[in-house]
Amino acid sequence: MAGEKHTHDLPGRAVMNSAQSEHNKQNQYNQKSQVLISPESTLTMVTPSWPLQSVAAVNPFWYLREKSFFQVATELSPILHASLFMPLQYYLEEFARGNITDSSIESVLEEYSGQWSELPRNVDDLIQLSRGSDAMIRRYPSVAEQIQANQYWHRCVVQDLGKMAAAYLDDQQALAPFPEQQGTFWQAFQEAMKYDRSMEAYGAYGFRQYVSELLEQEAEEAIQTVLSKMGLVSAEAQKLYLQRLLASVLGWATQFRYLEWQTGLGYSVSRQTSVLDLLAVRIVYDYGLFCFSQDTDFAPALSFWQTTYNELGTRTDHSVHGYRLHYVWQCAQERSFQKRVASSFVDERAANPARYQMAFCIDVRSEVIRRRLEEEIEDLATIGFAGFFGLPFAYKQISEKKPASRLPVLLSPAFQVDEEPRKRNGVGRKSLNANLILSYFRNLRKAPISSFLFVELFGLLSVENVVRQTFHSLMRRFRGKNLPQRFDDSRTIPDHKALLAADGHTLSARQKADTVRGVLRHMGLLQGMGELVFLVGHGADTTNNAFGASLDCGACGGHAGDINARLLSALLNDSEVRGELKAQNIEIPDSTLFVPAIHETVTDTIHILDENRIPRDRLKEVKELKRSMDQASAKARKERSVARSRVLDPHINRRPRNWAEVRPEWGLTGNACFVVAPRIRTRGANLQGRSFLHDYNWKADDGFQTLELIMTAPMVVTNWINLQYYSSSVAPEVYGSGSKVLHNLVCETGVQEGNGGDLRVGLPIQSVHDGQRLVHEPLRLSVFIEAPEDAIESIIRKHQAVRDLVDNGWLHLLQIRPDDLGVFRRQPGGVYTEL
Asked: What pLDDT was estimated at residue 371?
């Protein structure tokens, strides 16, 4: 650490004689090489990570999708120093449990035998080969990782760079601001290095002198200068080296990528910087150690490092081939799962329109509660639709400076909705102002000086809150049916009367009608509306949980879906909007009432929202249905509590308020497929909470516009969710955020595991592991679509991103044939074979 005392006894500090030193310097000069790549080309391995307040699941390989899944998995392995497949022993155990079938293995071996001649010819040979040693992971290190085996210098570099990045991204929490925050990170680093001597304190004497030349250049120029001086002679070696540098600070890189992503969508961001700036800073650290090592006994390790990279230009077998057995097992496991899902499809005709309808998010947790509700309420039909309910808006809360986007992160908001106080029962501005004062009071804990005095000055005032929270926690253990505070609808409402467009004008009734018309069309509700249509968003009620937003609705940008449900219900119940819809030949029956609700996913309780807006003559009917909902919720709770593992607290109402709870629920653990078909196809089938369900009737889809929307938006979002869970499971040390027990919040946007270093990305280990075994089964997403083949293919041809995902194996696409409901698997190029 920077505060430790370092002397010339530090390993590697023994100075060589002058002849050796001169020889090394001359040798280094002779190895100067031409820069053969653009540093920008190496940045595709970095995807954005969203702040914890509105965290969104991300496919960590999104910018690599033009390559095949297998190619990326094998190419990244030596860069990440991790495998992107499970160990062979895992697949053997899954085979022994019956989760991988002989027929699936045989079909995969037959498919790839022509491509890979060394594959075994039958199941027995595959098992025999898999019982040997697992694939060796070839590692290509940075200079900091190479020069000392105990990784001392790597830890120093990551710690120091993490300190710089955290200070640069700090948003008015630090007492003294980081220099040049208004500029790029590279500019801020240049300024800070005039004074910072941390690397010398760690023992890298002369570090600032070595890098002084680089600090006078622009970021990309500095990278190219270092590449030319490090003696890496091939383009492949240079690219691999830069990618390893990014991988060593992947967490911070994703934060910088997020700033770029938001800028690209037109949002205002706090810092104008890029991943390239971070890469430039990271390579400066490596170059300083590169020069420092020339005159120490680290020099032989440095020579070996150069040789390792330069062999890439001459060897023909540098690609990792050891994962072919893993890939066969992975495909066989996925194919076995696909067959189980396909066998559960129901061959029935659509029933008559139901009296009651409930629209849920396509989230896998909705599958369980939908199935239980349909069992409990006879005349009920449930609908699966994107959880933001097709409303692309930003929501401006009274207590917040900026509006928060309540839509998928792939989209930009089309209008803004403001929060307004209710003016009834004495609840209004005074109550809201009291909340603002309390919020300001709580923020004193975060200020640099008051944070030290907060407990001493105000600790006694917190006793009442501690007692109250403990009492509520105990009461929830026995009751737990009250509306959680975060969904409180008694104080404020989303103002559906004054929706502000991007240009600042207020949307007219006709424009509102145009918006909800598209929603009704894509939900399949232009005809056959029930008497009561519940719009059910979802969100999780947890406490002391930095990753709480990861349990909320991904389609709502990492927020709960209550506001979206309340807004759409208000619009569809509005007489002016209904009048405009009627003028467009879309008539909502007078007897139809839209009711907002929220599915609280920790307890699986459904809460009715805005009850005061329900007409009195309908309120009794709603409350009777609510009792049936509670019974369905109880069954769903029982099922979900043990579906993945039995380690969850059995006192389900205690989980939301337990400050020490690391697993309030399993979230989307287990997700593996996405079914795009009429609900009748899966109604009654137990999909074990592993399927995203989107209602879709191709016969009612004129021009297949709804199918195109599904394949370009929800299918992409579910792919992001699926691959985040996959990567956090197979490579938790790289794409997982470690243990919640060790987390420290940084800039309120990310976490470090411990007191410094790189940010951790992805999911905590507690989200996918129960302490004894992996709970999430890492499978790529299988998408089942009931639609004509030519319609599916026309959309794939039209959209490059969709074509990349499907043709390159980032997900599996399977067609449910409309004529006979046979399931056919799509292969690259548009060839369909029966599953």
From this structure: 97
